[in-house]
Request: fold
Amino acid sequence: MDKIGMITGGGDSPGINAAIRAIVRKAKDEDVDVIGFKNGWAGLLEDDKKVLTRGDVSGILPVGGTLLGSSRTNPFSIQNGPEQAFENYKKNDLDAIIGIGGDDTLSVAHKLRDYDINAVGIPQTIDNDLAGTEYSIGFSSALTQVMRAVDQLHTTAYSHHRVMVLEVMGRDSGWIALFGGLAGGADSILVPEEPFKVKDVKGRIKERESAGKHFSIVVVSEGASPEGLDQQITRESGTDSFGHVKLGGIGHYLKDQLDAILDMPIRVTTLAYLQRGGEPTAFDRLMATRCGIYAVELCLEGEFDKMTAYDGSKVEPVSLEKVIANSPKSIDDDLLSMKDLFY
Ligand code: F6P
Reply:
């Protein structure tokens, strides 16, 4: 093992730079060179790269985003994309490539195996919807932002006796909404795993009112939808190169529905990209550091087509095939039922 490549793909999140730093530090310690390809899989296709030294990764541990840049480029939706990826892999004398990203980025890493590319994946998505790992890099930072937003909405909500709807990200999984909402003490948490009834949301708000609480905070996941509406609310038409629509708008949809049946003022906040920006939490920094080191170890041991899975106490390998087959990971019923206790 002389040279490892690295890419960071999909939606960015705080903690990626910590993983990049750990990969470079561990690899250099083992006398292995590291090449960072820019802007996700696009960098490998275009041979747009940078040799990474220890100096390049100095000081990046607390910095959000990715110094390599990211994109949602899918080599498998581009003519001769996989062949081009292999050509540049060979041209750069790579022995392996580490992909840091969510299910889209890692599905490419898995499929490149058929093109003789040795890949290892590191789980990174604020959505926390990758199967086989309890956490993904970025999730802790995102839910901390949601918690802070709920805390801040509380003070203005109780002052004005309002209902505050907070729309958060997460695509088809409600992890960010559930954990962020629970951490902030939201009164209603609506997730894609469980279609909601608008009249139930109203019911909770009214129950709180009768208990003397003249305000409520509702956290709604962008992928949540009411019973009977057979589609998610989207912001734009069209899909990305992995076939995903751009979700968004459920917060305002819910407000309109509630306005018709509730005699209280309602305001909507969409947290959007504020959830993905800024500095990583201690948890994300540590997880990214451990996964980065472990990914290099997997490369050294020739354990390819694996992802570094993290369960809170240890990091272990899990087959990328299984990860992709079982993603997105939904919330278990036990965790989901917790939200109904608090309002
Ligand atoms: O997958 C991460 C994520 O932030 C989702 O929660 C969200 O739906 C999506 O990315 C937004 O994508 P984009 O950055 O392309 O707008």
Q: What stands out?
A: The chain has two domains: 3-138+280-325, 140-276.
